[in-house]
Fold these 2 entries.
Entry 1:
Amino acid sequence: MKSSETKIHMGDCLDILKEYPDNYFSLIITSPPYADSRTKTYGGIKPDEYVQWFLPRAKEMFRVLKKDGTFILNIKEKAVNGERHTYVLELIIALRKQGWLWTEEFVWHKKNCFPGKWPNRFRDAWERCLQFNKNKKFSMYQDAVMVPIGDWAKTRLKKLSNTDRKRDESKVGSGFGKNISNWLNREMAYPTNVLHFATECFNRKHSAVFPKALPEWFIKLFTKEHDWILDPFAGSGTTNEISQLMNRNSVGIDILKENYELVKSRTAQYQRRICEEQKQYETN
Amino acid sequence: MKSSETKIHMGDCLDILKEYPDNYFSLIITSPPYADSRTKTYGGIKPDEYVQWFLPRAKEMFRVLKKDGTFILNIKEKAVNGERHTYVLELIIALRKQGWLWTEEFVWHKKNCFPGKWPNRFRDAWERCLQFNKNKKFSMYQDAVMVPIGDWAKTRLKKLSNTDRKRDESKVGSGFGKNISNWLNREMAYPTNVLHFATECFNRKHSAVFPKALPEWFIKLFTKEHDWILDPFAGSGTTNEISQLMNRNSVGIDILKENYELVKSRTAQYQRRICEEQKQYETN
DNA sequence: GTTCCGCATGAATCGATAG
DNA sequence: ACTATCGATTCATGCGGAA
């Protein structure tokens, strides 16, 4: 088993990415600093300036992404003056003008978001995971993320009715037909574009930006082993850590020294652990 | 108990709404024809023309909505040429320029979404429920939509007999009636902005685009009894039917004669049923 | 009366083929 | 090249009738 490589950089991804060649990464997945939050980072970007700040960095990402690669952007607009700000919508439109295709919008449903109540809104329990691509054709390994089929199938497929045995056209002309008998012995189904992952809140020092399951799911879906993955706003380094665990190569960039060192140590730790596991494996 | 009023109009809401005064409705909730679908209705609006088609109608809606009222827009963009079309994003931005505040975006998670498999995407299992307001201050009755928490509540709720549940629903039309909510009361929490409802599949005749539970939830949240509710694209009339059940006044508009007559008969039926129940109640 | 179980239904999307 | 039509694909649900 060839071990995976993990490179961590300190700096602005706008500069660091210049060191990387075109068409290098299979997947870019990141949770960028939200507007006006993390004021230490990038000087705290104002909502109104967010798109202009993001675009030059997205241009570099476009360049280093493989032609069949995917860019997953985990983001959620904040409420400003009682309104949802539109910078994310404007960003999507601007990225399309830059050449990106807006292929899909996944919803990440945060199952255990913290309790609370405001006079004019409920708890925000979801974030956008925007999928962008360079081409209509891109690499996607759908079988890697299949889920168990619903309970209905157990009873339904036990005994097939007559209409189930042949293709049954819908009566209302919706063009929809099915052949249930094709589903015999099927135990897994393809998932939807709504993802249910709990947030991890045990990390006191560093606010967990996303749970491990989220990048893991997209990494399974869009990469195979030894592909290169980039997180240009690495934060606490979850993407890089998961990449290591899944035997993918990865690059992490963060502008904060504090984050840089955190990711460094987290990934070094795993590197060491993997080596130990390998040694142990070989001994056995 | 004063009975509620329900008015159904046939025509384009752009024209019909002119008959209504300013600041009349407490809630506008609707699922307009999506781009390129329902070709019989409004001739099937092209995605690129959608915003221009919608805006003049939204202007009338703005006028007839009360200052503290709410507009809920249920919509989802379609995939065009392998990409998500941006007309919904553009619509949000355009509505803001018209004076609307984009207060919140709820996610409706469709648990039983349309099946299908494609090389480049998964099944679409969610739709947007966009909340717009005229002012930062608006009427919101958060306590009306509290939900039971904890697994024990779920399992006990499941064990309730169907009659208990049915009697309950017919009485209040709200899922939980007094007797049940009494012992649940202590274990209630505020919901989030992610709503989980399955679409209703009717075995026969007309199907509703959204399940009753969806308008019901927003009606509970944003109106009280005898408030006026508008659905400018009434379709099969789910909004008006639920409004009646919940003792709210409502106006429904649809351009199709077929829909107009359907809604007419559905709401007339309920009107009759309510009258009968009232008579019976008074006799007792 | 309750529970079980069959079954029609759906704001879909893609790729190929035809005009 | 650009648009229109057609066939193929796929789950989970509530209903109504049967047990």
Note: Helices of chain A lie at 13-16, 50-64, 87-97, 152-156, 162-165, 213-222, 238-245, 257-283.
Entry 2:
Amino acid sequence: MGIGDDAVEIRAQGWRTLAALHGLIETALERALQTEHDLSVVEYTVLDALSRQDGWHMRMRQLARAAALSGSATTRLVTRLEERGLLTRILCADDRRGIYTELTPAGSELLARARPTHDRVLADALAEGGRTPELAPLVDALHRLPAAH
Amino acid sequence: MGIGDDAVEIRAQGWRTLAALHGLIETALERALQTEHDLSVVEYTVLDALSRQDGWHMRMRQLARAAALSGSATTRLVTRLEERGLLTRILCADDRRGIYTELTPAGSELLARARPTHDRVLADALAEGGRTPELAPLVDALHRLPAAH
DNA sequence: GGAGACAGAGTGCGCGTGCAACTACCAGCG
DNA sequence: CGCTGGTAGTTGCACGCGCACTCTGTCTCC
């Protein structure tokens, strides 16, 4: 085995670790958010992304990338949330192809209620990951990540 | 904002980064494996996990955890792969509830053909992640992960 | 100013997934 | 022995997703 093969194996191992930790966290969040606030993880992610824009709008396309979703999925996701009164579509005046989305007060409120659940479950899931030998190094690295303000 | 709130925000940020990188890699792998070998990422993961057992069997339950899948999804995934002749179900003698799965020669062969694609695309996706400012630190950390042999 | 290329958003469709309910099976205990 | 609690795997069902396609609107170039 040459040095190149080692690099390949390290990448594969890293990817498996990443996927495992991702699955662990996502499953935990999914269950908690679903039962306590009737929200899926992507739905929470979208609401959170919108709130992070702080009063500003977001186009569908940006939302799609923020949630790692396809265009079609984003359309339907926004439709669902709109029907629940959590956000509104706003037609863009200068580019009439574009559609902005904005959080409604009800949306902000639900997000505020869900955030503690999200943060608590995330902390728990990371702690559990930290207790799993093959996941612990990655969890550690995650905590040391430079916080981009 | 206290120090506790900072920790919460760092965790949330880390999770978003993790999810973003995961999505980037998974999408790239999905497309490449699908078009070149008619395999989904989970299917590849299962074949890879089985090959990694090197001649030994794996129970459905273990497979489910290895692929971060539910029990029902694992059943159907194994069924699909079995119908394609890539693996076989083996009834367990000592515990008649259990079912072992094993790679067929055709399965090993397909895996061997798909592995170069997988490794190449993974390397590319990581490289692209490394070029994205908010993802770069995590990609870096991934490379420095202790290789558990 | 009209034609073509392109981007943003929506729709039809097939498919894989999780949850809940179910069956088959093992282990312990009265 | 039968009974109970718990585990392994399978099936019915509803739902969200990606892909391919369409539609509308914008930009560019001649």
Note: The mean pLDDT of chain A is 94.
